[in-house]
Each structure stands twice: as structure tokens, then as C-alpha cells.
Amino acid sequence: MREIAIGGPGVPPGVRFTPVRIDDGPLTDHAPRPRTGVLCLAGSSGRVDAAILAASFHNPDLRRSLMARDGLVVLARQDHPIVRGRSLSLSRYLASEHIAVIGDSTHPIEEDVALSRSGQARRVRIRTQRYVAAMAIVAESDLLVTMPRFYALVVNRYTRNRMVPFPVRTEPIEYYLYWHASTEADSGVRWLREEIGRSFRKHGSD
Description:
alpha+beta, 10 strands
């Protein structure tokens, strides 16, 4: 994975963070790896200073804070005839063909789990590991893609696909920020936690 340093105006002197994959620097040997919401930030020491997970787990050496609750949305190209107004019916959703974004996980996809509970199943035409690739395909086809709203707000900036709520009621996706107890008083990690919280609050109001 290519490393990208986070720095610039507003970053405290001497603070430099790099995004890393969760499996490159896990917070714990038992850290879950769900499809939704995995981000680790490592400092210059190589340790993982913070991780954002759409999963809840407990470790006595970790601290955590709930950042946001999210829900699923469906995206379609701007002039897709199946989307009317600001909603999409379940019958129209099931009549469409879909892209399934599976990431690097073997976990069941949230939308398929929700559909299976009511005895429904969608028709998956394409499987991909990345939301960005799925959004590009959606913009040029009749395929639909389902994803968490926070993801959509980021990856839809350039494709500008239409976004409507997922037509099945689901449990909210909870994003937690985790950090090690030993860094509680670390000024750099404290700054990072504050910046992450500010970002979630901003996007949550979009």
C-alpha cells in the first residue's frame, strides 16, 4: 500500500501521520475486519495511534469513542429511470442489477444480510473491492451500488450519482475511534482524535 503522510497547515509541529492497512498494524490480534470503516493512522514510530472501525470490540488497553451512526444508501446514475424523486422502492431495487463491493473481507455484505432476513435476494452483476471503481461503473451504466452514507459522501464527489436511502430498514452502522490507553495524554494523538471527531461532525451535517 502506498503511504501518504498527513501534514500541512494546522498540524502540530513534529506530528506526522501515515494511513496504514489494519492488517499492517493491528491494534489487537483479535481486531475485527468488517467491510465498512477501517482506517489506521500510524505515527513516525510505526505504532498505530488511532483506528476507525465500524465494529465494536473491547480490550482493556484501548479507549474508544463513538464517532457517528450511519445508514446504507443506494447510488444510481443521474438520469437512471428507476429512481423516482428521493426514494427507491424495494421492488425496483430488486428488479435492478447491482455491483457488490466486497473489499478485502469475507464477511457477509450488510445489504445482502438485510435482504435475506426478509427472504429477498438481489441480482449481483459485478463484484469489486473498491467503492471508487463501483461509482465509476454506476455513472456509466444501469447498475446500482449500495454503501454506507459516509462513504458515499466522499466517493460521490466526482461522479455525482444520485443517492437515495436503502429501501430496507437496517440497524445503524456505528463508527468507533480507538486509541491505546498509553497515548491518552499524548498531544499529537489528542490532536488527531479532535480532528477526526470534527470531520465526522462536518460530514454528518451534510
